[in-house]
Amino acid sequence: MADSGKARIYRELIPDRSSLLLLIGIVAGIWRAWQKGIAGRPEWSYWQQLATQSWQDVAGADTAIFGYLPGFALLVKPFFLLGPLGLPIFLLLNALCAAGIVIMLRRHFRLGGEDAHPALLLMTAIALFLGLQNNQVVIPSMFLTMVGYFYIMSHSWRGVVALALAVLIKTLPATLFLLLTLIGRLRLAIATGLILGLLSLSLTAISEGWSVSFDAHLGFLEQVSAQNPNRALTDAQEPRSLSDNTSLSAAVVQLAPALGDTLPRILNLAIFLGSLALACYLSFASSRRLDNAPMVLALWLSWTIMAAPFGRYYYLVFLLPAWWALWPKEPANGYAPLLLGALWFVALLPLASRSGSIFLVIVIGTFVVCAWHVCRDLREAGPKKVSN
């Protein structure tokens, strides 16, 4: 039974030879992460600070570590208590989560049993490599986000725990609480928030006491807002992170020398509120269509990365559901040569995502196409009631 289970998982991960691209991307990312980790860089040094120092000393408003809930610190401490074994175990967990992402993508975003095109597999392999190579935690967070969302969509309480852990590891998926509310999963969204709060408060208290835990959580929003690029316009204070911030918000803020302070502030607010309103409307309109759940998740994740005030190239991992859902289905006679060339070009774009402009093109383009796709589906199919 165990052997058949392992074989089934292997077939889901690598059903054909072209899928070896995924394995190559994961292995290459882990190997690069190992090289950087034994040198203590880049994120591995941050996790070591969290594991060996007080949260308040490491994660203040003016430090390089921000956007992580205080309870996350206790999650990384065991890796450093294990000594030399800590890094390989961390890398193994990251690799397993990367494999889990691939399996989830195959289950929910390539319906009908058709094989994924090699260009899509290459694009996915590149994104996984980028997410793994710096010892970051976006891969585990993304995997738990997908698991949590689809369990919650089937009214399973297991999804509540998975999504709470995803947000504890990386706060980006917290925007899904609003999505779950819009699509009629209010009780599960509230339960997820409560479990997340309890987990983070308790984990911080275990290592530093309840007083420090409450203080750290009360100061969390200040810690994040201190790095918001709009502070350069509102407070005349440039956040420490602005120099390597590749978000849309930071790009607009950097137009201030040419446009003045007022117009970029209005533009940033309009982009945020307008895209949020569109995502909310499309999500609510799709709330009665269970078959549209994967695309709605793809839409929301792409909005999250576009609207986040801080951007990094490895956030592309959160766009993988959109890419798999949007990738054109191969016709019986194969792709036309022009389309095929365009798909291979798109597949290679993530390689250049360290460029802020390329990163923004990928993120904005993904969100726009997701929104158009959901609009088209709603017009063509109309609402379908979800069976309980």
Structure description:
There is one protein chain. This protein has 388 residues and is mostly helical. It has one domain (18-327, 336-381). Helices cover 68% and strands 0% of the residues. The protein contains 21 helices and no strands. Helix 2 runs antiparallel to helix 6, helix 7 runs parallel beside helix 20 and helix 9 crosses helix 11. The longest helix has 26 residues, at 356-381. The chain starts with a helix and ends in a 7-residue tail after the last helix.
How many E-type strands? 0
Rounded radius of gyration (Å): 21 Å
Approximately how much helix is present in the residues? 55-70%
The tally of structural domains comes to 1
- What ranges have pLDDT less than 50 throughout 5 or more consecutive residues? none
Q: State the separation between the terminal residues, measured CA to CA.
A: 32 Å
* Helix/strand order: HHHHHHHHHHHHHHHHHHHHH
Residue share in β-strands: under 5%
Strand count, sense and barrel status of the largest sheet are:
none
Question: Assembly state here?
Answer: single chain
Outline: globular
Number of helical segments?
21
The mean pLDDT is 89
**Which secondary-structure class do the elements indicate?**
mainly alpha
What's the short story on this structure?
With 388 residues, the chain is mostly helical. The protein is 68% helix and 0% strand. The chain has one domain.
How does the SSE layout of this entry go?
Elements: H1 2-13, H2 20-38, H3 43-52, H4 55-58, H5 72-81, H6 86-109, H7 118-132, H8 138-153, H9 158-169, H10 176-182, H11 186-208, H12 210-218, H13 220-225, H14 231-234, H15 248-253, H16 256-259, H17 262-285, H18 293-307, H19 320-326, H20 337-348, H21 356-381
